[in-house]
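Changelog-adjacent note: as of this version, every example in the card shows the full chain rather than a window. The one below runs 82 residues end to end.
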Amino acid sequence: MKKKTKTKKDYSRLKKQFGEHLQKIRLDKGLSLREVAQNCDLDDSNISKMEHGRFNVQISTLYELAKGLDMHPSDLLKYDFD
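Full-length structure tokens:
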């Protein structure tokens, strides 16, 4: 059986889904973009880009986001992927 190859569209959708999840976590915690940025080593404009699916998230970025949101990095990946 041939494995399906991911396309740019697939990755864009994954980034958008992650961004929506990230934004929901931040808003549920009552934090602004600036507050999250102040708690970690990321710029608030980059966090905004992540929330809108316009930024590739690396492992080190996940770690910094988790620090800024006061949660474990693995919790950032606990959502339903399509």
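Structural remarks: The mean pLDDT is 91.
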